[in-house]
Write a structure and sequence with these properties.
single chain; alpha/beta; Nucleotidyltransferase, domain 5; 5-stranded mixed β-sheet; about 35% helix; globular
């Protein structure tokens, strides 16, 4: 039995897992990304990665050097050919040789890619996009993460920064985005965008069930508007409809550009299931250029959840 090590490097935590040939996680380890300094010092992050690898392997009696390979998903621009993290905003890395440094430590092949690409590859090889040839995976979280699979391979672009679907503009001169531009898909369709939409509607309609729910819960999540809509609240319903409208524009643009076999959507709001997916399908299929029902991209909810990135990272050897 061959084993593969997957590492998901995040701004807050580094997660590691040992994965078998069936893409099943057999052990896990996790640690805080930041060391005692509280900042993203590269040497400290390297040390955390090494410790999580050793811990995950020890729990199942496997020596790291006996694994077949290590795959790493890291935020930012990752040169997968050279194994260099060229730039990552939340960790502050610039041109660090992550692949080489981990290979030196464990003496087995190491593969590096962007974390959204790794998550997309996870869904492609073991999740909602399994069996497809061309797929796009969009994750609706704090921002909008995305990965593109073409002919079974991760599409990275000429300079390894392709797939930033969240920063395509869907509203000219629209809402400000964290990237500094206006009207980005991310500003409207991320969980953050939905939360902002919900807060605005509640403030404008203090008598609504939506506003009452927020006061009772003491917080606003990406599911608050959906919870209000389930109670029959017209304000909550209007928020969800507006959200789907924006989401459908971005999704339709992607389908019109790539026409994948399947487009998978993930993130906490996707726990709404058919309440999100059914109206989204209707809206998207009205907007796409090819309306032949037999030649239409399938829309699906991601199935691997938070494990997509770590499974995809472990399987990166298949993406070369």
């Amino acid at each position: 039995m061959a084993y593969y090590i997957g590492i998901d490097v995040g701004g807050s935590n580094i997660a590691c897992a040992v994965v078998n040939e069936e893409c099943e996680i057999i052990s896990r380890s996790k640690a805080k990304t930041h060391g005692k300094s509280g900042i993203s010092d590269y040497s400290e992050v390297l040390d955390v990665i090494k410790r999580t690898v050793i811990s995950a392997c020890e729990s199942v009696g496997i020596a790291p050097e006996n694994a077949s390979s290590i795959g790493i998903g890291c935020p930012g621009i990752c040169n997968s050919e050279l194994g260099i993290v060229e730039y990552t905003n939340n960790l502050g890395f610039r041109n660090v040789p992550l692949k080489t440094d981990i290979e030196k430590e464990f003496n087995i092949p190491v593969y590096l890619d962007n974390d959204a690409n790794a998550a997309a590859f996870g869904e492609f090889i073991a999740g909602a996009a399994i069996g497809s040839r061309n797929a796009v995976v969009i994750t609706l979280g704090t921002g909008v993460g995305s990965g593109i699979i073409i002919d079974g391979k991760i599409y990275r672009g000429t300079y390894f920064a392709a797939g930033e679907i969240g920063h395509t503009v869907i509203v000219a001169d629209g809402l400000p985005c964290s990237c500094g531009r206006k009207g980005c898909f991310e500003a409207y369709s991320s969980a953050t965008g939905l939360v902002n939409m919900t807060k605005k509607a509640a403030a404008e309609h203090p008598e609504s069930a939506l506003n009452r729910l927020i006061k009772e819960d003491g917080r606003v999540s990406a599911r608050t508007a959906y919870n209000a809509a389930k109670l029959g609240d017209e304000v909550g319903k209007a928020v969800t409809e507006q959200y789907v409208k924006y989401l459908s524009v971005g999704v339709a643009n992607v389908i019109n550009t790539f026409q994948p076999d399947v487009l998978c959507i993930g993130g906490g709001v996707c726990n709404e299931g058919s309440l999100l997916l059914n109206p989204l399908r209707e809206a998207v299929y009205r907007e796409i250029y090819s309306r032949d029902s037999k030649k239409t991209t399938r829309l699906a909810i991601c199935t691997l959840g938070n494990d997509a990135g770590i499974i995809g990272a472990a399987m990166l050897y298949k993406a070369q």
